């Protein structure tokens, strides 16, 4: 149930399944208060503080778009930087 609520709240997935009168009542009781911006900002903090956790998931997209100086290593970077003398 939480999973479905998050998808509705963050992505709008399934929003069309909620009757308009109920949706208006929900939003009147629980206004979004810049939810999209607040959520993006929170994810940017994660990317800035723990960038290595963002390389292989959707945080990579947040970092690429919103975090200045963010870069994702290429798999060749790991090969070229391996600690071997040759």
Report what the structure shows.
By secondary structure, the protein is mainly alpha-helical. The chain folds into 2 domains: 31 residues, no CATH class; 55 residues, no CATH class. Helices cover 57% and strands 0% of the residues. α3 packs across α4. The chain is elongated and about 70 Å long. The protein starts with a helix and ends in a 6-residue tail after the last helix. 5% of the residues are buried.
Q: Summarize this, please?
A:
This protein is mostly helical and 86 residues long.
Distance between the termini: 54 Å
For the sheet with most strands, the description reads: none
* Succession of helices and strands: HHHHH
Uncertain residue segments:
none
Strand content: under 5%
Helix coverage percent = 55-70%
| Overall geometric form | elongated
Mean model confidence by pLDDT: 93
Q: What is the count of helical runs?
A: 5
In terms of structural class, how would the helical and strand content be classed?
A: mainly alpha
- The Rg value, from CA coordinates, equals 19 Å
Structurally, the number of domains stands at 2
Number of strands: 0
What's the topology here?
Elements: H1 2-11, H2 20-29, H3 35-49, H4 59-66, H5 75-80
Helix pairs in contact: 3-4
Summary tags:
2 domains, 0% strand, 86 residues, mainly alpha, single chain, 5 helices
């Amino acid at each position: 149930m939480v999973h479905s609520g998050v998808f509705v709240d963050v992505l709008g997935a399934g929003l069309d399944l909620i009757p308009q009168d109920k949706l208006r009542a929900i939003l009147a009781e629980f206004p979004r208060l810049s939810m999209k911006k607040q959520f993006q900002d929170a994810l940017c903090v994660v990317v800035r503080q723990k960038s290595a956790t963002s390389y292989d998931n959707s945080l990579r997209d947040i970092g690429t778009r919103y975090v200045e100086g963010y870069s994702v290593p290429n798999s060749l970077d790991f090969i070229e930087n391996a600690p071997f003398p040759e």
